[in-house]
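agent> step 3/5: call structure_predict on target 'Orotidine 5'-phosphate decarboxylase' (Oryzomicrobium terrae).
agent> reason: downstream docking stage needs a structural representation; sequence fetched in step 2, passing through unchanged.
tool.input:
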Amino acid sequence: MTTTTTFTQSLAAAWQKNNSLLCVGLDPEPTKFPIHLQGRPDAIFEFCKSIVDSTADLVCCFKPQIAYFAAHRAEDQLEALIAHIHGRHPGIPVILDAKRGDIGSTAEQYAIEAFERFQADAITASPYMGRDSVTPYLAYPDKGVILLCRTSNPGGSDLQFLDVGGGEKLFERVAKLVASEWNTTGQCALVVGATFPAEIARVRSIVGDLPLLVPGIGAQGGDIQATVEAGKTAGGTGLMISSSRAILYAGKDEGFAAASRQVALATRDAINRYR
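tool.output (status=ok):
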């Protein structure tokens, strides 16, 4: 991907080219790998590369979760994986799922890590520390910054559903800030979980056509129809609907990548039925 193509442009192109709103999350757990990969020093790279190569024409983006690589000292394999995606499947953006959130000087280092070391096209981040903690990521005008808004985990309501005045919920305030004041370069997006379709619809009504990253279908139980109908834009796009475990571990043997492709294809087609 060249620096003249922004994350949002690449995402929009992938929505159209692959007729897909599916994001495949790359959360490698070596204990779940097929036996022929276990014990290999490059197992994480080989596993994820196989998944990527078997599904790249079915997705709008890939989303490696950095903790699953770092926990196994496999950051070098993450670098190699993102380089492979860009080289073999140009135009498919890569979101580094890191959920960073820290003060400006530290955020500058996280931005270097994500965008210069790993060459990711976008990063997930927390809005909790305010605009100045997000600004360092916005200094990269071709990159995406995807802020947590209404997450799919049960504890998300502990803070995100708090009333911040006049009946406005905290997640609604985040959506308004990100879509307006923070989105000065047009590169922001939001994370809204599939387990709360009513909140997806509310966020969509606030942010217009801003892209939404929606985890929570598949293993987390989010409903595809409700998610798509609540979150799609008038043009039938606007979503990156993420599935990880259900696709990654669809197969147990040497045919695991083909099994993953079948689940990815079925998921993409199920999403498209409601666009």
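agent> step 4/5: record observation. The first helix runs from residue 7 to 17.
agent> proceeding.
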